[in-house]
Amino acid sequence: MEGTEQTMSSVSLIYAHPDDETFLSACLIRQLADAGHPPALLLATRGDAGKKNGAFGHLTGEQLGALREREMNRAAAVLGLSEVVHLGYPDGRLAAAEEREAVERVAAFINRHRSKAVFTFPEDGGNRHPDHMAISRLATKAVLNGQCPAVERLYYVMSDELRQQGRRPALTIDTEPQWQMKAEALRAHASQLLAIERYFGPLDAVPAERRYESFVLAWEQGVHWPEKSEAKAREELHLPSV
To answer: What separation, in Å, do the N-terminal and C-terminal C-alpha atoms of the chain show?
Structure first.
């Protein structure tokens, strides 16, 4: 459901499925919330095609989508999100959505929150998932085509392809001090337990290869791939210094 009342969230996160936010940015979200600036989350789909990742293969797509919305609400409470909105596009088929309308819906969400920073997937989607790549394209167009005048910075989740291109993160968050919180948010997405375990293991301790949440500054006020110090990025986002 999409809201209409204008609110303030200095950061908007634009992802494809429920659980993307926790996989990629749980500690970023919690730190923003703890600093008094809880971000808002826009999800392109309800995750209604994720039947192979748990014990819910018997559900219809509609039933699974409803379940995943409830799971997302539980995770949102753990993370401290200010709002979660689902656009409701079919899971796995986001690339087929009418682009102009989809960009306008993304822009409307960002503008309603008057966000100064937007976080989303990189162009490659992180893992070449078509929905991840599609929402990256839609969010990037919404920001770069001038439809979101309040936005000053666009961040991408770090990916192997970005590293190979020589991109360096402007912001890196060590999840180990907050791992129990992140694990709790992951467990809230219970229908996706198998995918979670494949990625993070049993959740009893932070896996070394998944310890850090890293983000690349892709665009800032007309400049692509600007250099940004970690200290400055944290200051602008109202995050604690490290």
So the answer is: 37
Distance from C-alpha of 137 to C-alpha of 123, rounded to nearest angstrom: 7
Alpha carbon distance 135, 41 (integer Å): 13
Strands (E), 196-241: 212-220, 223-224
Dihedral sign of CA atoms 154, 92, 202, 199 in order: negative
Long-range contacts made by residues 181-184, C-beta under 8 angstroms, separation at least 24?
181/26, 181/27, 181/30, 181/78, 181/79, 182/22, 182/26, 182/27, 182/30, 182/206, 184/78
Distance CA 229, CA 219 (A): 14
pTM score, whole prediction: 0.95
For the four alpha carbons of 157, 159, 161 and 167, in that order, the dihedral sign comes to positive
The secondary structure of residue 216, as a DSSP letter, is E
Residue 146: both structure tokens together: 């001038």
Tokens of 112: 């309603």
Closest CA relative to residue 158, chosen from 133, 129, 121, 128: 121
Per-residue pLDDT tens over the stretch 108-119: 999 999 999 999
The type of residue at 40 is A
pLDDT single digits (tens) 80-92: 999 999 999 999 9
Residue 152 phi/psi, 5-degree rounding, is -105, -25
